[in-house]
Specification:
Length: about 350
């Protein structure tokens, strides 16, 4: 490598590191806004007192302390869903791949409904095993259908199989809900997608699962870069494509299934954030994955804060707000034709 090429590579790394640093600072800002704003706005001294004084001694401090778990959950869920979308797009080489399109979200949702109806799973922690099982089963079914035929699981066949499976799962989901109105009453609030009302006691048991999913996602970066060149080239370079896809798929199932279990199905993050990150990082998954996680966490917190402000003294669930914010972003990306670059 020439000195000029080395200098350009070093400058590119520095720019990407600076971008990650700015993204982290943005998360700090959004986290602060999440603690400050809501049905009752508080001042900065109240936030500091709420973080340092336990238990709370006044209403403002109590408001801050109820928003802390919501803020942490927003960061975790946003990063998890964006990571899941990024690894799915890389593994399938499909720019429209996300947990919703490939049936992973509906598989998790159907399994959670069955868990509520059959086993009385009424808490976020009890939803997790059901959601993971449903997400994994849906992924296996989609990949199995797409693998039929001589060409194997091509990006187009994966998208078609995922859309068909997702529609089937949604029909089964509707059938269960129509036959069990008691389950419908509990499910309809979870289905919208929200991060309010969940405490640290419900979050802590699922953190190891999300951490494992994140580790697998980042470990799959090199394999996803090889897959981007095409299966034949990847195999020629010594990459075991089936292992790369298996690791990426397992990461997506763990991240999406667990995030869906604790927050409900939240759309657009897994589809939009990887494309937005790709505008800054290019196709290199070593940078694309952390950028996607940071952008996903930031958008979810921003959507949650905005949902609290526009509907005071109530709030609009974050699942609705992410669609409102995510759709224009995705349309803008498509117009720039960056959606084609994987």
């Amino acid at each position: 490598m020439t000195a000029a090429a080395e200098g350009a590579s070093s400058a590119r790394v520095h720019r990407r590191m600076l971008g990650l640093l700015l993204g982290a600072l943005g998360l700090v800002v959004f986290s602060a806004l999440s603690l400050l704003l809501g049905s009752r706005s508080v001042a900065v001294p109240d936030v500091i007192a709420g973080l340092t004084t336990w238990p709370a001694t006044d209403i403002a401090q109590a408001a801050v302390q109820t928003r802390i778990p919501r803020t942490v959950l927003g960061l975790i869920v946003g990063a998890s869903l964006a990571l899941a979308g990024a690894v799915l797009q890389g593994a399938t080489r499909n720019p429209l791949a996300d947990p919703a399109l490939l049936g992973v979200s509906n598989g998790a949702a159907l399994a959670v409904v069955v868990g509520i109806a059959v086993a009385g799973a009424g808490t976020a922690a009890s939803h997790v095993p059901w959601a993971l099982g449903g997400a994994a089963a849906a992924s296996v079914v989609v990949y199995g259908i797409a693998s039929l035929g001589r060409e194997g699981a091509t990006p187009l066949k994966l998208a078609l199989a995922g859309a068909a499976t997702s529609a089937t799962l949604y029909s089964l989901l509707s059938g269960v809900l129509l036959s069990r109105t008691d389950v419908l009453d509990e499910f309809r609030f979870w289905q919208v997608g929200g991060i309010g009302g969940t405490g640290f006691g419900e979050m802590l048991p699922v953190l190891p699962v999300l951490l494992l999913g994140a580790v697998l996602a980042f470990a799959s970066a090199r394999g996803l870069d090889a897959l981007a060149l095409g299966d034949d080239v990847a195999r020629g370079l010594g990459s075991r494509t089936w292992i790369a896809r298996a690791v990426a798929g397992l990461a997506a199932v763990l991240l999406c299934g667990t995030a869906t279990a604790i927050a409900g199905p939240i759309g657009f993050l897994g589809l939009t954030m990887p494309h937005l990150a790709r505008m800054f990082t290019g196709p290199d998954h070593r940078w694309l994955l952390p950028y996607s996680a940071v952008l996903g966490a930031g958008l979810l917190l921003a959507a949650d804060v905005l949902g609290r402000l526009v509907a005071r003294p109530g709030d609009i669930e974050v699942g609705i707000m992410t669609a409102v914010l995510g759709a224009p972003v995705f349309i803008a990306i498509v117009r720039r034709r960056r959606v084609r670059e994987l």
